[in-house]
From TrEMBL:
Residues 434-456 are annotated as: Disordered. It comes from the Bacteria. The lineage of its organism: Bacteria, Bacillati, Bacillota, Clostridia, Lachnospirales. InterPro entries: Pept_U32_collagenase, Peptidase_U32, RNA/ubiquinone_mod_enzymes. Residues 319-429 form the Peptidase U32 collagenase domain. This is U32 family peptidase. Residues 439-451 have a biased composition (Basic and acidic residues).
């Protein structure tokens, strides 16, 4: 059985420490496009050196390109950034952006692609989609249970990579816009400011649910799964991933060493290795955030997973003795690559040195060996000189010397022979990785920007019965996206059909909005009716995750799909990926500004012109953490240090929480700029608004966007934001 222990490296020093401690592979970032923009990321020269080091040690190196790229970055910068690394032998890239995936497949065809956890891979269908798209490995969403991972493996037999130790995001990775919306530092661009690690007051119905001692309601404890490694492996996980590119090399080396110990014991046949108290303490002392938990592998959520008190904020005494030991054992010593050598030195013949590492061997010739006139060289003297491999990265584990009597060769010639042989050996060892060439790029190979020429129509997305009723009776809305949770499972088909008929009479079409997160069971009781409902007039589906897309695709309903904004189409290649699948359309990304959107294909896209932006989607539940799980679809308010209030909604049927921005985005005054983008439709997105508020907002946008009136009245007095429409993100 082969299992990979995968370590983080935020610096070259951490990379070396990870290999010393026993990592099979390392993932790290370069100067661009990585999800840890503030780590001590490596420059190109260091990256190539790191690739070589990994291969000389029989390891692998993966580069993070796990951010969303804008058109200019993708078309003008990525090729030049990646080509030298590809040709140096880079093993794989970790990718979030489907446009990046398509680009890499085109120009770097032999490079393995690992689908990042930022893609929110939650089930079999999303994994199948990515396998078909060219991914060789999927990094699962951290929220998955062991049985869910097992299903993915059994259905796809892909390499599966899952996190086993380190920090956890509160939000499903890739679904967080909190840092982006609050401060313009996007987690999707590697610049997360971690607002989830700050204190919040929690209110429900005007009553505060927490106090100052339990204020860190969005901050999970760290995960530590060393005790359940066998179960994780047996669920189908191939690569055991440690989190921590922002942490020190001592952290990397210490954590890797403990996991290496218990992984080796399992692979040696010990089915359930017992973790010692000493090793638990090592992991604890290296770093923990108010304790540990075993992640989501065996539980869906819960208060026990949260670091509510944030003991770290009070300062922690570091175990200096432990850190000193780690430095001495894994950082100060550099284990060389072992080689075997045969040196032949006979008078009148050239000195010959053969060196071998693994299956690779080289032979070099030196100067002619001379007869000694007075002080012949002895074997011990020759051996001492030859074994001075210094900083070459190699060391002789065996050196055979065949020599004649009364020979002489200057020491500098022996040194030169050794250096020449080891350099040739290194070159030969790395040769298999240096033979790839990037496909030549034509600068003109850029997707065309296509624009919608007809005026955009108005659509509306609703989450409550009251909002649905308000939008249904208001003129001007052509398409309505109704949250499928509005229609109870018991009478789902009948209720949806009744609304289809009612809206068709009013000249409107109904689409169903599927849950933000779909895993094993979220669509049970509903998906069985989808095909029948389409036949009865249902327009289609708004999809918010790749798992939902895969389920509908398997039903032959791809042409009925509209992607929401959180299935990112930041660049034209990502949008083309989906259009080629045959979908109906997508939604303009929320993190591009108007100038950037002008260079994007918007012909098949909708632009959200009103709505509270969903900033976090979490399997954790604030209601349950602060009180209890009552399945009441509660709403609550988070108040930050500046007294800004963020509304949260518990979607109990689908078991996730959504936290919305403090202010709604409104582009009511931006009609002229919006029109220039050439989108297919403008969407109003309703979340917590009342029926009366919904009616007023719809009428205001109908007046401005469809009838050409100037903004006035109710919407003019409300406090709103333009989101990223003007400022964009870094």
């Amino acid at each position: 059985m082969k299992v990979e222990l995968l370590a983080p490296a935020g610096s070259y020093e951490a990379l070396e420490a990870a290999f010393e401690a026993g990592a099979d592979a390392v993932y790290l970032g370069g100067q661009k496009f990585g999800a840890r923009a503030y780590a001590d990321n490596l420059d190109q020269e260091q990256l190539i050196r790191a690739i070589d080091l990994a291969h000389l040690k029989g390891k692998q190196l993966y580069l993070t390109i796990n951010t969303l790229l804008k058109n200019r970055e993708l078309e003008e910068e990525l090729y030049a950034y990646l080509a030298p690394l590809y040709e140096a032998g880079l093993d794989a890239v970790i990718v979030q952006d489907l446009g990046v995936m398509e680009f890499i497949k085109t120009y770097f065809p032999k490079l393995h692609i690992h689908a990042s956890t930022q893609m929110t891979i939650t089930g079999v269908e999303s994994a199948k989609l990515l396998k078909k798209a060219g991914a060789t490995r999927v990094v699962t969403a951290r929220e998955l249970l062991l049985e869910e991972i097992k299903k993915i493996y059994d259905a796809t037999h892909m390499e599966i990579e899952s996190f086993v130790h380190g920090a956890l995001c509160y939000c499903y990775s890739g679904q967080c816009l909190m840092s982006s919306m609050i401060g313009g530092r996007s987690g999707n661009r590697g610049r997360c400011a971690q607002p989830c690690r700050l204190p919040y007051q929690v209110y429900r119905d005007g009553k505060r649910l927490n106090n100052e001692q339990t204020a860190y309601v969005l901050s999970p404890k760290d995960m530590c799964t060393v005790e359940i490694l066998p179960e994780i492996i047996e669920a189908g996980v191939y690569s055991l991933k440690i989190e921590g590119r922002m942490k020190k090399p001592e952290y990397t080396a210490g954590v890797v060493s403990v996991y290496r110990k218990y992984l080796d014991r399992y692979l040696a046949g010990e089915k359930r290795p017992v973790v010692t108290e000493e090793d638990r303490k090592i992991l604890w002392d290296i770093y923990n955030r108010d304790g540990f938990h075993q992640s989501y592998y065996k539980q869906r959520n819960g208060r026990s997973m949260m670091a509510l008190e944030n003991e770290k904020s009070g300062g922690t005494i570091r175990n200096e003795e432990l850190f000193s030991r780690i430095r001495k054992e894994y950082m100060e010593k550099k284990t060389p690559v072992p080689v075997q050598g045969t040196l032949t030195v006979y008078t009148g013949c050239p000195a010959i040195l053969e060196v071998q590492a693994g299956d690779v061997s080289v032979t070099v010739e030196g100067e002619t060996v001379q007869a000694a006139t007075n002080c012949p060289l002895g074997e011990d003297r020759i051996r001492r000189q030859m074994e001075k491999t210094g900083g070459s990265g190699f060391a002789f584990e065996k050196l055979d010397i065949f020599m004649g009597d009364d020979i002489f060769l200057p020491m500098q010639q022996l040194n030169h022979l050794r250096r020449q042989a080891l350099e040739a050996l290194q070159k030969e060892m790395l040769r298999p990785w240096k033979q790839r060439k990037a496909k030549e790029r034509d600068p003109k190979d850029v997707p065309d920007v296509k624009k919608q020429t007809a005026p955009g129509t108005l659509s509306a997305a609703v989450q409550t019965n009251e909002q649905l009723a308000a939008v249904a009776q208001t003129d001007g809305i052509r398409r309505i996206y109704a949250d499928c949770g509005i229609f109870p499972v018991k009478d789902f088909a009948q209720d949806v059909e009744a609304w289809i008929n009612r809206l068709q009479t009013a000249g409107k079409e109904l689409f169903l909005t599927l849950p933000r997160i779909v895993r094993d069971r979220e669509l049970d009781g509903r998906k069985e009716t989808f095909t029948e409902l389409v036949q009865k007039g249902l327009g289609g589906f708004m999809v918010r995750n790749m798992e939902s897309y895969g389920i509908l695709d398997a039903m032959g309903l791809t042409s009925r799909i509209v992607l929401d904004a959180n299935i990112y189409t930041m660049n034209n290649r990502a949008e083309s990926f989906w259009i080629e699948k045959g979908i109906l359309g997508d939604t303009v990304p929320l993190e591009l500004n108007a100038k950037e959107l002008a260079h994007r294909n918007n012909k098949n896209s909708e632009l959200i012109v009103y709505g509270y932006t969903p900033m976090m989607v979490s399997v954790q539940c604030v209601q349950k953490t602060m009180d209890r799980c009552n399945h009441a679809c509660a709403q609550y308010t988070l108040k930050d240090r500046y007294q800004k209030e963020f509304h949260g909604v518990c979607s109990c049927e689908f078991c996730y929480n959504t936290i919305y921005n403090a202010l709604p985005t409104s582009l009511l005054k931006e009609k002229e700029k919006a029109e220039k983008l050439g989108v297919e439709a403008y969407r109003l997105s309703f979340t917590t608004e009342t029926e009366k508020e919904t009616e007023k907002i719809v009428r205001a946008f109908v007046e401005v966007y469809l009838r050409g009136q100037k903004p006035d009245g109710w919407m003019q007095t409300e406090e709103t934001t333009k989101g990223h429409f003007q400022r964009g993100v870094e």
